[in-house]
Amino acid sequence: CISQKCADPCPGTCGANAECRVVSHSPQCVCVVGYTGDPFSFCSLQQAEPIPQERPTPCIPSPCGSNAVCREQNSAGACTCLPDYIGNPYEGCRPECTLNTDCASNRACIRNKCQDPCPGTCGQNADCQVVNHLPLCTCRPGYTGDPFRYCNVMPPPPPVQAGPVDPCNPSPCGPNSQCREVNGQAVCSCLPTYIGQPPGCRPECVVSSECPANRACVNQKCVDPCPGTCGQNTRCEVINHSP
């Protein structure tokens, strides 16, 4: 109600770049969209807020290979293999092993790790040795049984009954001799066709020079070489072992 007239109270009420709305008979001024300030005096153009620039993340996308993780380090992506994996993290990491042949011959591939397969494999009183990736159990010296279960103490061997002593075994007589037991004692003598005394038994001769000049060494014996040598109606003489 203005001057006893129902009139619009807005004209001349709001400042520039503002619009007026009548709420419960009273003018309400608000800056138009895109402007800010005192709507009853002046609304100025609202400055656009700068759009924040997203900082690049060096790990998105990840520069790492399979089974590797990326961590930002000095604004760059640094790759490392996952725990229990080995290899080049930028190309791809792998477990330590997948087959026994990936391990040394004295290790086995257990849960993708090269480990000693012996613990818990052998029984009591047994020793374990790894041969070509496999555990080999053997009973300890003095024990016998199943080395993968239990080894028992080996029983002592039965006592050996002592027999009569043979004085000729081994023979004390030496080469080219023979031994005979006489009253529990060894008696030595040369073999037939051998001469001397044990242990020095030897053949009568080996070369003709060991025989008299009128004899020759034939089959290790000094004999007359004439018989059967000369013809009929002849006489044989031995000179220097030769007929």
Question: How do the helices and strands line up, and which of them pair or pack?
Answer:
Layout: E1 18-23, E2 26-31, E3 35-38, E4 42-45, E5 68-73, E6 76-81, E7 85-88, E8 92-95, E9 108-110, E10 113-115, E11 126-131, E12 134-139, E13 143-146, E14 150-153, E15 177-182, E16 185-190, E17 194-195, E18 202-203, E19 216-218, E20 221-223
Antiparallel strand pairs: 1-2, 3-4, 5-6, 7-8, 9-10, 11-12, 13-14, 15-16, 17-18, 19-20
Describe the structure.
- There is one protein chain.
- This protein has 243 residues and is mainly β.
- Helices cover 0% and strands 36% of the residues.
- It contains no helices and 20 strands.
- The strands form 10 sheets. Strands 1-2 form a two-stranded antiparallel ribbon.
- 8% of the residues are buried.
- The mean pLDDT is 87.
Summarize the structure.
The chain has 243 residues and is mostly beta strands.
